[in-house]
Amino acid sequence: MARGGGSQERLRWSKLYTFACTRPTVLLDDEQPHSLQGPGYSRIVHCNQPGLHRKKPLNYPTNFVSTTKYSIITFLPKAIFEQFRRVANLYFLLAASLSLTPVAPFSAMSMIAPLAFVVGLSMAKEALEDWQRFMQDVKVNSRKVSVHKGEGCFGYKHWQKIRVGDIVKVEKDQFFPADLLLLSSSYEDGICYVETMNLDGETNLKVKRSLEVTLTLDDDVAFRNFTATIRCEDPNPNLYSFIGNFEYEQQVYALDPSQILLRDSKLRNTTYVYGVVIFTGHDNKVMQNATQSPSKRSRIEKKMDKIIYILFTFLVLISLISSIGYAVMTKFGMPHWWYLHPDETSYIYNASNPTLSGFFHLVTALILYGYLIPISLYVSIEVVKVLQATFINQDLHMCDGEIGNPAQARTSNLNEELGQVDTILSDKTGTLTCNQMDFLKCSIAGVSYGLGSSEVEIAAVKHFASEASGTSEQHSSTQDFWEDSKGRFGSSEIEFENGNACKVEKPQKPAKKSFSFDDDRLMHGNWKKEPNAGTILLFFRTLALCHAAIPEPNEKTGGFTYEAESPDEGAFLIAAREFGFEFCKRTQSSVFIRERYSPFEDPLEREFKVLNLLEFNSKRKRMSVIMRDETGQILLLCKGADSIILDKLSKNGRIYETETIKHLNEYGEAGLRTMALAYRVLGESEYSDWNTKFLKAKTTIGPDRELELEQVSDMIERDLILVGATAVEDKLQKGVSQCIDKLAQAGLKIWVLTGDKMETAINIGYVSLVAKDNILTQITNASQMIKLEKDPNAAFALIIDGKTLTYALEDDLKNQFLSLAVDCASVICCRVSPKQKALVTRLVKEGTGKTTLAIGDGANDVGMIQEADVGVGISGVEGMQAVMASDFSISQFRFLERLLVVHGHWCYKRIAQMVCYFFYKNIAFGLTIFYFEAYTGFSGQSVYDDWYMLLFNVILTSLPVISLGVFEQDVSSEVCLQFPALYQQGPRNLFFDWYRIFGWMGNGLYSSIVIYFLNIHIFYSQAFRAEGQTADMAAVGTTMFTCIIWAVNLQIALTMSHLTWIQHLFVWGSVATWYLFLVVYGMSSPLISGNAYQILLEALGPAPVYWAATLLATLACNIPYLAHISFQRALNPLDHHVIQEIKYYKKDVEDQHMWKRERSKARQKTKIGFTARVDAKIRLLREKFQRKVSTVNVQAQS
């Protein structure tokens, strides 16, 4: 295949770029390859000979990648281990084993079958969820790429079939299937553009270059006889380093990271590249940064284990009491009970050896009282969580209408954790931002242009205007401004007493993509009428010329689209075009722009000769281009961070500095990203002298080359003249601001962990600390500063880069670092590696002891997603690595609000109430068995029929509790979103703290006492039938069981706040099922029903005392709970109690003032998010207003 023929392919970028992709034109004699000796440098790759790597000693892995938790071999042992990590399952395994012995009070099948069902169902759910992960792995592994098959022929192969040594051809906008060494590209000098957003979060394109010796490998046929050997470092997780040698045609060439193309990065702005596979499968650097899929358990489940321990201790205690009582009865009572034939002894009944009999009875009691520990709890929770996950998956409010991606609960084990999150750790690029910049304002020659306003400005000014006019309510909430700002709000103006006005406007016409600027003073050629038209012209030309972008004709629009290295650059070029300065062509030595000074004039094409390009990097924080215009004048045009540019101005270049700094501060307050523009005119001799030094530094070989280039660049980038500044809006994804605001109001802390550069993540000056002692001092000083701060509205943000973070995460510093971070309103970690993201997540999780949630969209986020208590992946248009490693996936960040504030709140409360209720009903039921056994001389006799006991948890009380866990809503989803502070009930653990748990246990104890002793007292000494018969054990047991069924089902009905027809059906249907069972069971043969034959129809049904006892016991059990909740609602109501009453009495409709007041109270005070920024803006406007009033008063008095 011949090399592609686009104009961009003919450019030799090494002639333009200074730092990133140059190769010296002169090879020095002392140039040496890397020394690759010692451990860690043993990898050998035979290029174009993949078969050699399948044999020993190499035997490299395939390119198959798996993110599943289990494999076919490990599923059974790992899944069984997961199940018996649960204490209750371990207990029932022991009980099932003991049921095989003669001392068991029940049949072995009645113990083994429920355990097998519970464990089997849970394992089946785990298998299903892991199967879904496997299918997503298959989807990725089945992608195709062009691979050399021999004799210069290429064909497509699945990613998973690629081997080390394969030659692959990757085409534009495709992901790299493995870690590759770049051999050549569609550009003549082997340059290619790579987007690494999936790896490090950076949105600007990286320039990669091949070795010069492989440039001739420029088409398919060239690989017919190609062979070479690569010796390099072993697989490791470092994304930013690579050491190796390339042996080709008896020469050895040194390799560095600029030749390496990493898996999951994407080829951009380049038609194709050829590369050789170095690392495959789990050896590639992305997978080296991933950790093994962890087994996560929710906090409620862990706490359940502690409750099980408590109940098991109680079970052992009453079993000991029972066995001691039995031993005493055996020794002292049994010899006198002639009807028991005490002379017929066994090891179970032996009056001469009561200790042994007591021991065997201990085993019997442990099994008999096992109903205290609910075996069906876990399986019921599994069913409930699966149904909850189904509702999450089917929530249309979390489905992206554009791409049709719904939310997905990839594991249902952690539903309730969504309601207990304390800290969110988020990636930035792709997760919060949509990688799009909007040109909004600019400052030129000390004059600010642009009438467009940010959402913060609009909301703040509208609020302040309403206050100034006296129409604002005292407790008005800024959350209502979201709706206002979404409309086409024109302008708000506050007129002060002296006639001055504060005006904020929002463009009413639709904004163009990346250009929301609106100011007629600069548009349509009107800029020529401005006093400083010459400076404005220079400003526009700087926007159009100072970049490294490539124009590509757009056949649909007839214009150009720009392949820029960063979104900022693209926004500047679009802005320049809208102002009349269209960048239209680039050649090897020139840039062409079409200048149109008036809409009625034809554009004039101008050529500017590019002499040098000093590109942007994170250390320089600026970019310069040196060019010669059509008059022969040499200009240096520079753009960069304002803090850098302002330091490089000449004395004569600071004319507009004061006003420009003022505008920069205003733009910063509005949340805009700023950049300063400056220029310098160069003389011929000055440029010639500098260029000689520059070329010498450019061709230097060695570690000092970068430093020399920077020093030479600094020599020319000085004595600049300030032109102006730009302000662009970093477009967040749809709804991100609202989402962050609601999450902040819900009391959640938000950390941003990004691979982006510092200046991309935050627009403030920053000094990087590299000495460990300095870091400790800085942390100490910062902590002291926060403690001494007296302003209650002061908000501190901690910003730290990856290099500093390396020290901060060491054992002797990490606790101080965490303490400082927790005290700050927000934390931003920049330039952090995937491993560091995971380490920070672990530090927050273990250091605070609270629930953490990590959210991201790329492969670089996998580590922190797996490390966090809850991992959320964004299923956007990029790779699916984050989704495959996540517990939940959503298509946009904004859906996190509903996932947490609605579903998280519901799931937490449902599971908490469900677990508490489960322990209540089992204690109420299980203790009656103990009371009866004590009443019958600790004989081991159960008062209930075996079928009753089997049906209690499986049928008669299972569906109501499942309906509680699935359908319960304390408030509706709309109210959850309106009252975000309700979410704090989860992190504060209001519904599953020890007070509430022991309260429910106490309720169960009380109910068991009432039911047992009330029934025994009623039936003990009086006839219950018309014929005068007294009750036998079957009648008493059935009546007690009826009371239990009524009491626990009425209790759950009282617990529910949201009763649907399904819940009514399950609750009252369970009661009806009990009576139906009694009828059917009683009608069966006495061989089956035994003493329960016709128990309801003939014995209990006609007896009024049976119905009276049921009614009395049911009311006696539930009246205390009813009194408790009535007292609580009247005197100490919880937040949702107040809201429920407001909604019930429709006060939210009748009294809007009260409703707004309550909504305002239901916001956690926060220093981050939209609301906090609006409040800060309001305070600034108040200060301005007060200064104006003070000035007017002074003038009036004078």
Keywords:
1198 residues, alpha+beta, 9-stranded antiparallel β-sheet, 8-stranded mixed β-sheet, 34 strands, 44% helix, elongated, disordered N terminus, ATP hydrolysis activity, ATP binding, transmembrane, nucleotide-binding, ATPase-coupled intramembrane lipid transporter activity
Task: Provide structural commentary.
There is one protein chain. The protein is an alpha+beta fold and 1198 residues long. The protein is 44% helix and 16% strand. It contains 38 helices and 34 strands. The strands form 7 sheets. It has a 9-stranded antiparallel β-sheet, with helices on both faces. It has an 8-stranded mixed β-sheet with strand order 14-34-33-32-15-29-31-30, sandwiched between helices. A 6-stranded antiparallel β-sheet has the order 3-2-4-13-5-11, with no helix packed on it. Strand 25 (622-628) and strand 26 form a beta hairpin. Helix 17 crosses helix 38 (1169-1197). Mean pLDDT is 80; it is low at 1-8, 19-31, 470-510 and 756-772.
Question: Strand pairing plus helix content: what structural class?
Answer: alpha+beta
Radius of gyration, whole Å: 38 Å
Biggest sheet features: 9 strands, antiparallel
CA-CA gap between termini: 87 Å
Number of strands: 34
Helix content range of the residues, please? 40-55%
Q: Tally the helices: what do you get?
A: 38
Percent strand equals: 15-25%
Mean pLDDT: 80
Task: Provide the spatial order of strands within the biggest beta sheet.
Answer: 17-16-28-27-26-25-24-23-22
Using the alpha-carbon principal axes, give the shape. elongated
Low-pLDDT runs: 1-8, 19-31, 470-510, 756-772
Protein name: Phospholipid-transporting ATPase
GO molecular function: ATP binding; ATP hydrolysis activity; ATPase-coupled intramembrane lipid transporter activity; magnesium ion binding
Enzyme class: translocase
EC number: 7.6.2.1
